[in-house]
Write a structure and sequence with these properties.
Elements: E1 5-6, E2 10-11, H1 14-22, E3 27-31, H2 36-43, E4 57-61, H3 76-82, H4 84-89, E5 94-97, H5 108-118, E6 122-128, H6 134-137, E7 141-145, E8 151-156, E9 165-174, H7 175-179
Parallel strand pairs: 3-4
Antiparallel strand pairs: 1-2, 5-9, 6-9, 7-8
Length: 180
Amino acid sequence: SSAVPVAGKYRAIDFPLSNLINAGVTNIGILTQYSYRSLVDHLGSGKEWDLDRRQGGLFIFPPSLEVDGKGWYKGTADSIYHNIEFLKKSKAEYVILLMGNCVYKMDFRRLYKYHIEKNADITVCTRHMYDYSEEELKRMGIVTVDENNKITDLQEKPLTPGADFASLGIYLMKKQILIN
């Protein structure tokens, strides 16, 4: 969960948020599911991230729960679909999709530069998981690439992973591609 405490003061979401802010991203939508109240309490209005602004800012989208408990998102794509108006209203040309529950440091400016240089439709961040067991690889998105690093296959949680090259769940694309 993105609300999981890290080192007492921080939450897991602070790391991807920091990466975005350091790259100059100032229009951030957070699609929440479980523990969203704790996440909202932690992030507040975005003031500590300098995201409490008239243009752009921090937007938090909890699921719309009904009395009978229905309304939980069925996954990432479903949460995006239910909040597509946020994307449509955004003036941003590009979108970075990422998970909020991972602790890492990444320069998204380099990712953007790579994406533009490759003239890619979608850029997927990947990593060789040479130090992971087959059981761990079965829980990941396994990627196959050609000699130009173009993805030729992506299998989500395969029963028999044929490689150790995995998606990190970080995607960059034009906003219109995602909307379409």
